[in-house]
Protein 1
Amino acid sequence: MASEMTYRRHETQQPEAQSLHRKPIKPIRYMLREQRLIFVLVGIAIATLGFTLFSPSSSSPKPIPYYSDPISGSEMRSSSLAQRKSSIGYITGGIGSVGGKIPLGLKRKGLRVVVTGGAGFVGSHLVDRLIARGDNVIVVDNFFTGSKDNVMHHFGNPNFELIRHDVVEPILLEVDQIYHLACPASPVHYKFNPVKTIKTNVVGTLNMLGLAKRVGARFLLTSTSEVYGDPLQHPQVETYWGNVNPIGVRSCYDEGKRTAETLAMDYHRGANVEVRIARIFNTYGPRMCIDDGRVVSNFVAQALRKEPLTVYGDGKQTRSFQFVSDLVEGLMRLMEGEHVGPFNLGNPGEFTMLELAKVVQETIDPNAKIEFRPNTEDDPHKRKPDITKAKELLGWEPKVALRQGLPLMVKDFRQRVFGDQKQQEKTTTSSSTE
Ligand code: NAD
Ligand code: UDP
Ligand code: UDP
């Protein structure tokens, strides 16, 4: 009441100043007299403190420390998963970066991850792990060597999407991470259409790097031990540049992957794309294509079908076999870690093909016969990873020995080989009775 009177007196004394002074004077005097100002100031202080402490998007992004990669000598941003999640809007330039704060309804829970080639052997195991972790996974696959069967158990899960798409064509997606696996891996498959293979490795990788650049996603390339060709250094260390025939029948794959690595490093250095490079050594496990011609799948399927194991050449060439769960663990550590690589991911246990045949005999059928066949062109004589770098920088090493992993694969193959046979028998019987 008193304040109103004061205000009216003021009104009659200076009518032309009314519109200018009416609003500010009344609340200020009111606050001063009622000692409300102190409450307002304390309120503002508490709100500012709370906002600074609990709102990650409002705080200006802290500079992320840089690490130097011992191999590439290049600089890269360190970003543990926690760091990445809290600053994802800043890093990705996605919805979170627009205007700083993410509207409540648009906040994401897990990461959005693309797995190209996710319907294949390795990709589908990786997808299982990512889904289990709570990520939103998009599989991009043209089903050349992969199959819907490998990811069917995720159908209906709202965190899972499957897109039939060939990576040789551009694609627009909004994601945080890209695991780029799309490429046939078995020699029989990649030699089937060599031009398509090299296009997949070069144009496909270029497109996925373009996507990574556009949305600020981290990009992991699944390269291969084949970049070492027929190696003159044994075991192979990441610093070894390899011995590859550039015009041979395997070069669509070997040189394709070497170019893919080059592209990844050029996008990293030239466009600041966060890249990771894994050089994968021979991997086996459930869901491998039964008739893809790779040695472990061939031997296992042959032993189960009571056919002779086909050893190419004199069988003295060596490979190192890694169980798929070890590889997936290595890929995820690499993606989440702060090092570009390249990293060898493989099991250093080295076997000749004759020794492998023996392990398959012991596991499936001691009476399985061995049949020698001529070897294929440019077949590498030996291969064994030096994994010192992955051990030191990723804290990773394989856990599953060949004799432990093989029975797990045999169980899966047994179901598929004999399941298929039963299915065939049923179809033949029903068509003959019609
Ligand atoms: P895979 O053949 O089972 O899987 C490859 C997947 O990529 C398949 O689902 C296939 O349909 C898909 N694909 C192929 N071309 C494509 C294209 N143009 N567009 C979209 N999708 C396409 O092979 P994998 O063993 O799972 O290998 C996965 C990755 O790991 C490959 O890049 C391979 O080069 C690499 N790698 C594998 C091994 C191994 O021993 N398994 C060793 C070294 C490297
Ligand atoms: N690309 C894509 N998806 C994207 C962004 C790019 O498939 O979200 C493709 C694009 O079509 C191009 C390739 O990635 O063929 C490389 O893209 P980049 O922007 O690096 O090169 P540019 O388009 O300038 O040649
Ligand atoms: N190999 C074999 N018998 C087979 C298939 C392959 O002896 O039925 C040999 C092949 O000659 C090579 C090794 O096994 O020396 C590994 O071949 P794979 O195709 O599995 O993979 P690579 O390492 O050659 O890509």
Protein 2
Amino acid sequence: MKKIIEVLPDGAALTVRSLDLILDKLHSAIQERGAFTIALSGGSTPKPLYEAIARQNLPWDKIHVFWGDERYVPSDHPDSNFRMAGEAWLNQVNLPASNIHPMPTEQADPATSAHLYEQELQDFFKTAPGEFPAFDLILLGMGDDGHTASLFPHTDALQVCDRLITVGNKDGQPRITFTVPLINQARCVLFVVAGANKRPALAQIFAPTGDDLAYPSRLIQPQAELWWLLDQPAGQDLHSL
Ligand code: 6PG
């Protein structure tokens, strides 16, 4: 595994650097395989990045957008990661509707939605049950408790190793999430983290030893590339790494 950590001076620089990296992976994937598959993170940090992507002139028909996790709310709910990415990026460009793969959240049972999305991934990547497809890039954020995607501390989702998609749990609220092994299969995993409130968790995550179940981002160790792009307030203690 190739692991790169970069600390950028501010949010604007973090957005520019993140965009550069994504565009580099996008053009390489399209050149090598004719398409680019990306899984998006939610929350607030990636919104400026999605707005920056929307301003690019890209071969949208070759780009396939998935989500690494989703809150279990309707797609038009203010908390929906799908809605945020649509408003910031996807509604602004000519990306074919068939290239946009939101996590279903309308099923009564979240487990049914998890199974449906797993089936959608298997159909898209033409993988067999139990086989983990390799996304070109999985974009991740990190909470101040060290969670990523919807893999929260000390939850059952952290232990799921035989599925692509599972049901996460935040304070009793269901989420749909990629599993650790699916994330670790990616060609490139990119964490984009901002804010001083993330510093304590980052110290735990970058410590040589620690409690993986307490800080789930420690579990993200892809076979290929792992990038951490941090703004100064989040990453100022990590320069020495
Ligand atoms: C979500 C995300 C989650 C997010 C972190 C950081 O659905 O909320 O996927 O993993 O990346 O909670 O969120 P912020 O960027 O808002 O700090």
